Structure formats: structure tokens, C-alpha cells
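Example is below:
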Amino acid sequence: MRKLMMTRDVGALVVTEGNEPIGIITERDVLRKCCRDASCEGVKLRQIMSKPLIVVDASTPIGVAVENMLERRIRRLLVTERGKVIGIVTQKDLMRGTLDAFEAMRSTFSLL
């Protein structure tokens, strides 16, 4: 799992059983729960994954997603569309989206 995360340059992996997502493994999970030793050999994904999964629909407003993350103290949300996971939104993504919206609003008002 560490190698896959490093190779793909991702901070999280969705854990599935069959085709159903059942948990998420983040860099933090790996560091906290797995790497106290020098090796993660023998550690099962099920042992260190975060669950239950917290998901939002793709049509969820950014503000609602931010509130959800703050209330639950999480850094990533799975995004679904018609019940299927289509992506992960991170704190960084939401900050970037909020900043872009603010910049667009500021540009609009400076034109007036």
C-alpha cells in the first residue's frame, strides 16, 4: 500500500470489497497505525482503514462539504454520483475552489 501511494503520488486509497467501497486508507492512517515499526508486513488494510466512509454527492455545494469536513474532523470526502464513487475531494481542493470563487467575486465587484 505504501508503494502504491508513493508510485501514484496519492495521499489516500479507497478500500473496496467486491465493487463496494468499505473504507479509506490515508497517509496519516499508515503513519499512525502501521509504521510504528519499520515494516508494515502482515498488516491488513482492514486493520488500519478509516471507516465508515463519509461521502457527499457531486452536486453538494462547496460550503456544505467544508462544514461536513470540519464537523467530522476529516481531510477527505468521497464524492459520489448516482451512488457510485467518482472521486475524492480534499481540504486543499476545497480551499482552492473557495479561493477561486472569492477571486471571481472580487473581479466582478471591481468591474462595477
Summary: The first helix runs from residue 2 to 8. DSSP finds five helices and five strands in the chain. The mean pLDDT is 84. The helical segments are 2-8, 27-34, 45-48, 62-72, 91-111.
